[in-house]
Amino acid sequence: MRFVICGAGAIGGVLGGQLAKAGFAVILIDTSPEHVAAIKAHGLQLKGVHGTHTLPIPAVLQASAVDFRPDDVIVLAVKSFHCAAAVAELRRATTLELPMFCAQNGVANEGIAARYFQQVNGVMVLIGAKRLVPGEVVHTGNGPVGIGTYPAGLSHAAHSVAAALEETDLPIYTTEHIGRAKWNKLLINLNNATLGLTGLATQAATADAATRVWMAAVWEEGAGVLLELSTEMAVARALPGLYTVQQLRERLQE
């Protein structure tokens, strides 16, 4: 099994670096010429919570430069707003039906990928990472990584990738409901605004009693919005053509 990492920034770089350190074949795709050049010249520098490692990983600027083969697994780690273009480029670069794993925030990427590839899976990422210097990624937090098949279940590829990741330093779990895990991550991310407004790091914020109460209220409000929306959409599906979502909202508020 070889891992083709599309997007070798913070998350893609840490995932690819961890897999390479564990002995798996990895190739990185990234659109930054400086980043790719630095990796080619000096290897990927993986730093952070598990030490410093120099990893000689092949890196290219575009998917068409990859010699795709049947045992490849594609890990999509670009920003969500680059997802459609990246997946379309990957589809043009190979006719193989390769399993794809969307290691991104948000809940729309898997649906976009499924327009181009048949075997789509999700990766729920709670690790902390950053890329500030070309050729270098820093692993700042060792949160869990969840693996599941889109829209639900656990495919053979999902089991295989989870087994591979279990050989890395990352804590791994599998779930048959990857969508739920990704929605949960969106709720967690709501408090990024809290951290930005207070200037506190996550550890400091959760250690402060008053801030914890505020963060819990933010999560509760977000969960309430999602619950209301899911109720509206469920009714809309049960009564097709009878009400718009806005009309349903008004009726639910009566």
What's the quick description here?
The protein has 254 residues and is an alpha/beta fold. The protein is built from 10 helices and 12 strands. The relative contact order is 0.12.
Features:
254 residues, alpha/beta, eight-stranded mixed beta sheet, four-stranded mixed beta sheet, 44% helix, globular
What does this 3D model show about the protein?
- With 254 residues, the protein is α/β, with parallel strands linked by helices.
- The chain is built from ten helices and twelve strands.
- The strands form two sheets. Strands 5-2-1-6-7-8-11-12 form an eight-stranded mixed beta sheet, sandwiched between helices. Strands 4-3-10-9 form a four-stranded mixed beta sheet.
- The radius of gyration is 20 Å and the shape is globular.
- The mean pLDDT is 91.
Instruction: Please state the structural category.
Output: alpha/beta
Q: What portion of residues is helical?
A: 40-55%
Strand order of the largest sheet: 5-2-1-6-7-8-11-12
Mean pLDDT: 91
Q: Uncertain segments of ≥5 residues (pLDDT<50)? A: none
The string of secondary-structure elements, in order, is EHEHEEEEHEHEEEEHEHHHHH
The general outline is: globular
According to DSSP, the number of beta strands is: 12
Distance N terminus to C terminus? Answer: 57 Å
Q: Count of DSSP helices? A: 10
Radius of gyration: 20 Å
How are the secondary structure elements laid out?
Blueprint: E1 2-6, H1 10-21, E2 25-29, H2 33-42, E3 44-48, E4 53-55, E5 59-60, E6 72-76, H3 83-93, E7 100-102, H4 109-113, E8 120-125, E9 128-130, E10 136-141, E11 145-149, H5 156-165, E12 172-174, H6 178-189, H7 192-198, H8 202-207, H9 209-238, H10 245-253
Parallel strand pairs: 1-2, 1-6, 2-5, 3-10, 6-7, 7-8, 11-12
Antiparallel strand pairs: 3-4, 8-11, 9-10
